[in-house]
Amino acid sequence: MAGRSSRTAHTVAVLMGGPSAEREVSLSSGRECADALRVAGYEVIEVELGPERGGDLVAVLAGLRCDVVFNALHGRWGEDGCVQGILEWLDLPYTHSGVLASALAMDKTRAKDALRAAGLPVVESVIACAAEVRARHVLTPPYVVKPNDEGSSVGVYIVHDGANQPPQLADTMPRHVMVEAYAPGRELTTAVMGDRALGVTEIVTEGWYDYAAKYSVGGSRHIIPADIPAQIAQACLDYAVRAHRALGCRGLSRTDFRWDDTRGLDGLILLEVNTQPGMTPTSLAPEQAAHAGIGFPDLMRWMVEDALCPR
Prior knowledge:
Helix content is 31%, strand content 22%. The protein is of the alpha+beta class and 311 residues long.
C-alpha cells in the first residue's frame, strides 16, 4: 500500500455510499468520478460503503493496494473529518480537505465564526433546542431552520414572513438545530480549485434550491457565467477563495451565496462552504470547471495529483 511518499498514482480507490442522509448522492458522484478516472488513465477500485456507520472501512482499505483514495462520500461521517482521520491514520493520501477543515466546514456555527473572523459577510444565527423551535418563533420571521451539521439542503425549513405558527420539525431532526435569518435574493455559487476561483453560476429554480432541485434532472437551471454586475462577480470570486483559505480547505470546494440585487454589494451574503461538492451530472463544480476549459477527466486527474502533494 502506497503512503504519502508516493508522487505518482496508478490505482485510485473511490469511496462512495456510506451511512449519511446523502448516501444516494454519494453513490451517483462516486460512479461518475470512477468513470472519469478510468478515462484519465487510472486503474480504479470502486469501494461502496454500507449504510452502517464505520463498518469495516479500516479492514477494507488496509486490504486494498491503492496509491490514493478519492473520497466521494457526502454528509456526516464522510465529509466531517471522521473518514479523513481514518485515512490519515492509515497514511493514505486522499482528495478534498483534511480533518480540521472538513470538521469545521460541516459545523455551520463554527464555520460562520471562522468566516466572520476573516471579514466575510454571513447571516446571523442561533443554536436552539428543537422543542423550543416547535413551540415558538425563536427569531422574527422570515428565518430558516436546519441541522447544524448536514449538507445538500437536508432537513431545511423556511418560515416565511408573517407566519403565525412556528415550524413543526420532523422527529428525525436533531435535538438542537440552527435557526438563521433568511437571506433574500438570487442563488449564486463559486467553485475553488486549489487557489483559483473558477467562475460564478446563478441557480434558478421555481421555488428554493432544495434537495430535489439540486439532484433531479431539470430541478434547476444553471446560468454560467451568471448575468450579474462585474463588481458582484468579482466579489464572489474573492470571497470564495478567502473562505476556502479561512477554513483551511484544500483541493476542490464550493461556496454558496445569496445576493439581494436591490442592495448592491451590501446584499451579497455567504451562506456556506461545501468541502466536497457533488460530482453528479447536475453538479455545479464540474460545470464551472468545464466552462473554464477543464474537462471532467482532467479535473479528476488534478484532484488526484493534488492529493499526492506534500502537506
